[in-house]
């Protein structure tokens, strides 16, 4: 399954930017190289057998030998320049390497070689969503869905494109279709919730995020991403609860700091300090926790430990963008002590 990075939510990297209350989750949605059966999804009506070189390439991918796989796919194209499967995989490899233009070119050639290639339609429309080329995404998903009405990822990519164009009615229709086809997939509900906020439907967004939580189970990335979205939506109590689930899955300083930021939003300063102390105890070298702990302690009038936290931050980030501001905070706190 390929989902557009336009969703900005599918893989959550637990890292906080010190300059803000909470950071945006890192976006990442590499194209699937060996997702599902051996070989890319072919036109359902006329499944195409893989050529020998493509088969070897898929085997190399299974072994995480990307260079070897690329060589096999290129060999397949030398034998047959219209090998749609080889073009599909080369596009996916280009995208994984950050070469969006190369990926687009390969995907378009693959579609020309095999019109209605669902896997390519999914990846190409997602690529366009990533680039906010929403009209081009819809130019791929519209005919694609006419042929592959049960392809959930095509519905999702169409929904993202409509949402990006602020067409709420069409976006909701396509998101609902995607959810109906994949009711147990938390990522679809997570993406839906994200875009509902963009469309100004906060209540509906929170409902989708709530529905995603039990489906995420032990998937830390998804659980943490849901927590982040709830924070963005200012559903602070829910955010605290979800990050509690994330911490139960992984006792990490980043997650304690994220939950602390939710507590700060909920004006639970005591709880925030407790979480930040847990974060700094878990990893004293995690600079954001030291920074936020200094802020919370200073706010509570505990200037001596606040200074210690700020100084710990400066040792970790002496030349960072907040170094000057933290130095000034230390000066002010020392004035309060004296």
Structural class label: mainly alpha
Q: Assign an overall shape.
A: elongated
Helical percent range? Answer: 55-70%
* Separation of the first and last Cα atoms: 61 Å
Summarize the structure.
With about 350 residues, this protein is mostly helical. It has helices at about 50-60, 65-80, 85-95, 100-115, 120-130, 135-145, 150-165, 170-180, 185-200, 200-215, 220-230, 235-250, 255-265, 270-280, 285-300, 305-315, 325-335.
Written description of the protein model:
By secondary structure, this protein is mostly helical. The chain is built from 17 helices and no strands. Helix 6 runs antiparallel to helix 7 and helix 11 packs antiparallel against helix 12. The longest helix is centred in the middle third of the chain and has 15 residues.
């Amino acid at each position: 399954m390929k989902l557009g990075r336009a969703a900005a939510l599918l893989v959550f990297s637990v890292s906080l930017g010190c300059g803000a209350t909470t950071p945006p989750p890192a976006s990442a949605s590499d194209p699937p190289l060996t997702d599902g059966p051996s070989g890319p999804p072919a036109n359902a009506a006329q499944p195409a057998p893989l050529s020998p070189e493509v088969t070897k390439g898929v085997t190399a991918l299974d072994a995480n030998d990307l260079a070897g796989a690329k060589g096999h796919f290129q060999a397949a194209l030398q034998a047959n320049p219209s090998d749609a499967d080889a073009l599909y995989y080369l596009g996916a490899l280009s995208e994984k390497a950050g070469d969006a233009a190369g990926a687009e070119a390969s995907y378009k050639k693959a579609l020309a070689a095999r019109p209605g290639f669902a896997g390519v339609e999914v990846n190409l429309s997602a690529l366009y969503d990533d680039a906010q080329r929403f009209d081009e995404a819809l130019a791929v998903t519209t005919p694609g869905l006419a042929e592959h009405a049960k392809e959930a990822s095509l519905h999702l990519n169409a929904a993202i494109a409509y949402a990006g164009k602020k067409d709420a009615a069409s976006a909701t229709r396509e998101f609902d279709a995607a959810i109906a086809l994949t009711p147990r997939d938390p990522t679809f509900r997570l993406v839906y919730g994200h875009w509902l906020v963009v469309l100004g439907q906060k209540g509906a967004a929170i409902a989708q995020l709530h529905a995603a939580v039990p489906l995420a189970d032990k998937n830390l990335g998804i659980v943490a991403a849901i927590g982040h979205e709830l924070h963005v939506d200012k559903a602070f109590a829910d955010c605290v609860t979800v990050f509690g689930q994330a911490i139960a899955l992984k006792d990490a300083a980043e997650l304690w700091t994220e939950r602390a930021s939710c507590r700060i939003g909920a004006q639970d300063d005591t709880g925030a300090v407790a979480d930040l102390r847990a974060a700094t105890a878990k990893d004293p070298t995690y600079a954001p926790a030291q920074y936020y702990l200094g802020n919370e302690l200073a706010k509570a009038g505990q200037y001596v430990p606040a200074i210690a936290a700020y100084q710990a931050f400066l040792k970790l980030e002496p030349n960072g963008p907040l170094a000057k501001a933290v130095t000034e905070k230390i000066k002010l706190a020392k004035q309060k002590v004296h």
